Amino acid sequence: MRALPQLSEPMPIRLRKLIGAIMLIVLVVTWALLAMALAQSPLVKANGAIEVIYYVVAGLAWVLPAMPLILWMSRPA
User: Fold this and answer.
1) What residue segments make up the domains of the chain, in order of their start?
2) What is the model's pTM?
3) pLDDT in the model for residue 8
4) CA–CA distance from 57 to each of 20, 21, 61 (Å)?
């Protein structure tokens, strides 16, 4: 089986990091706005313990969608 020829140049690492940084900023801002909107839910506000758990989970869970993006940014050219 033959490999297909590469039709374009690989993306330069600096451009990949610039795009990734912009996407990370968009992800974090969007995540924060959604987390704040969901925090106003009566279910979250009903109990102090649930509220603490929600904020811990919402505060750390943005890492999961960010990891593939960070791995893509750090991939060699």
Assistant:
1) 30-77
2) 0.78
3) 74
4) 24, 23, 6
The tens digit of pLDDT for each residue in 19-62 reads 999 999 999 999 999 999 999 999 888 999 999 999 999 999 99
Angstrom distance (rounded) from CA 26 to CA 20: 10
Q: How many CB atoms lie within 10 A of CB 12?
A: 10
27, two tokens: 């992800």
Q: What is the SS3 string spanning the chain?
A: CCCCCCCCCCCCHHHHHHHHHHHHHHHHHHHHHHHHHHHCCHHHHCCHHHHHHHHHHHHHCCHHHHHHHHHHHHCCC
Cβ neighbour number for residue 31 with a 10 Å cutoff: 17
Amino acid symbol at 5: P
